[in-house]
Design the sequence.
């Protein structure tokens, strides 16, 4: 609440360092499985946060990215970064989750079943200051599903959302 009430001009970097990364750490992501400002091979631009599947390789690689987070400044619409994040994710075939966030709000998108692109609507949405069970205006699930989708232990078979891709690529 401090950020909401007392802080002005919180930068995108502060949003990632002070809000996004602590949440991801709390949801089981180790620092070794998170990279800030990752530049994918052959990609254009830098991913704000790349989350690598645990226990896959000794070194981080594009093929091991399972989720990316595109962050925006606090109180900017978190949906603003969606097209930018989609462009990054297209070059990462094993990335099944795409998150856009302003640090307080998280919209999580998943790859379409059998497709190369992500759903047009979020599979789940989370507003940390006002968590809800669902967001009918967005047509998606709420806090419970969002926290599951953000966790390091997520697997498509765990999700209840109809938008979540059931993938044969998971063999762990």
Sequence:
């Amino acid at each position: 609440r401090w950020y909401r009430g007392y802080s002005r001009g919180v930068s995108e970097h502060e949003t990632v360092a002070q809000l996004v990364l602590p949440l991801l750490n709390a949801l089981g992501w180790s620092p070794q499985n998170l990279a800030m400002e990752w530049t994918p091979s052959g990609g254009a631009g830098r991913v704000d946060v790349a989350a690598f599947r645990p226990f896959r390789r000794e070194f981080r690689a594009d093929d091991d990215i399972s989720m990316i987070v595109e962050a925006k400044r606090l109180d900017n619409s978190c949906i603003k970064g969606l097209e930018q994040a989609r462009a990054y994710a297209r070059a990462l075939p094993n990335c099944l989750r795409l998150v856009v966030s302003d640090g307080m709000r998280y919209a999580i998108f998943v790859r379409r079943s059998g497709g190369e692109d992500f759903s047009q609507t979020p599979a789940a949405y989370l507003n940390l200051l006002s968590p809800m069970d669902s967001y009918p205006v967005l047509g998606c699930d709420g806090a419970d599903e969002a926290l599951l989708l953000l966790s390091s232990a997520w697997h498509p078979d765990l999700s209840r959302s109809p938008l979540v891709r059931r993938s044969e690529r998971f063999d762990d």
Observations:
- Helices lie at 2-6, 12-26, 82-90, 143-150.
